What we know:
single chain, BirA Bifunctional Protein, domain 2, 2 domains, binds biotin
Amino acid sequence: MTHAPVLPDGWTLVALDSVGSTNDEAARLADGGAAEGTVVWAREQVGGRGRRGRSWASPVGNLYSSTILRPECAAPRAAELGFVAALAVGDLVPAGRAVRLKWPNDVLVDGGKVAGILLESAIGQDGRVEHVVAGIGVNVTFAPQLPEMRYPGAKLGGTVEVALEGLTRALATRLAEWRRDGFEVIREAWLAKAGPLGADVDVRLGEELVRGRFAGLDREGALLLETPTGPRKIVSGELLGRAA
Ligand code: BTN
């Protein structure tokens, strides 16, 4: 049976039947002054967006939510929140299912992609973050399988309402951890759920394909690789489907 989702104390739910993209709606509310913890949730999106200009199929049945965050940090640190969000999604997964986090912020369950995270920031003229919209789509009742997907799809199971409650609770907890303990603790937690060090990885950087071995995550969230030509640090790129 469905019920109205209960959010963490102080958080506010904006529930919609249908919207273009919850990220756009959340950004509009943030520009108007909406507080951290404002969550835009839609039953469906007709213009759901993924990373790198892709679309995100968003019919009724899965979770589409965007949370306004006000991290009060300098712009380069906003990317840390992608790791916070990925850990929060991982926290949702029931014990007994294998969670693997993939750089920068994909979440795989039993080898399939269960969620997508699209972080969008507004930066002030002083170089500080005005807000971040953490857009998170979770496959709950079905797993889309699209030809352009780098991983097969996986689903969480249960209901969208329960997933939204769990996600916002986990996000509030991980966010508090980030504020209290800093990125180092988040980085270690993320690494504990990432692929093994030394695993083969391929990363696409525009036209370039970099092949190497996974060597960790640096203190800014960049991917570290050992390649045949020496160590490389990848700030922005797309991990392709080999081991890590
Ligand atoms: C990805 O490409 O993996 C990121 C997908 C992000 C999808 C979510 S669904 C809720 C929010 N609204 C959007 O338009 N996109 C994000």
